[in-house]
Amino acid sequence: MKAYKKLTKALVYFHGDYFVPVRFSYDGIKIIVNSVTSFWVEAVGTQKIYHFSVMTTLGAYNLEFDEDAKKWYSYLLGG
Questions:
Q1: 60: Cβ–Cβ under 8 A, 6 or more apart, which residues?
Q2: Rounded distance between C-alpha atoms, residue 7 and residue 4, angstroms
Q3: How would you classify the pairing of strands 71-76 and 29-44?
Q4: N or C: which end of the chain has fewer CB within 10 A?
Q5: Contact partners, residue 37, CB within 8 Å, separation at least 6
Q6: How far apart are the C-alpha atoms of 49 and 70, rounded to whole Å?
Q7: Residue 18 CB: number of other CB atoms within 10 A?
Q8: Residue ranges of E strands in 1-70
Q9: How many beta carbons lie within 10 A of that of residue 28, not counting itself?
C-alpha cells in the first residue's frame, strides 16, 4: 500500500547546527514525537530535503522538511 505525503505543521527543537521535530499534526491530530529512529538528507542540486523517521504513541511516521519551500510533509509508515 502506497503512503501519501500530507502537508503538515511541525514544532521543532533547534540546537546549534541541527533541528529535530518534537510535535507535528496529521489529519488534524497533534502528535508528539517520542523518538527519532533515523535521519537523512536528500540533496538534489542545491535543494535539500531532510527526512526523519519517528516513533509516536500512534505509530511510526516519516516527516520531511523541504528546505527551499520551507514546508513540512508527513506520512504514516505502513499505511
A1: 37, 53, 54, 76, 77, 78
A2: 10
A3: unpaired
A4: N
A5: 53, 54, 55, 60
A6: 10
A7: 10
A8: 6-8, 10-15, 18-26, 29-44, 47-56, 59-66
A9: 5
Closest among 76, 47, 61, 63 to 12, alpha carbons compared: 63
pTM of the shown model = 0.88
How many CB atoms sit inside 10 A of residue 3's CB? Answer: 13
Cell of 77: 509508515
Residue with C-alpha cell 528546505? 67
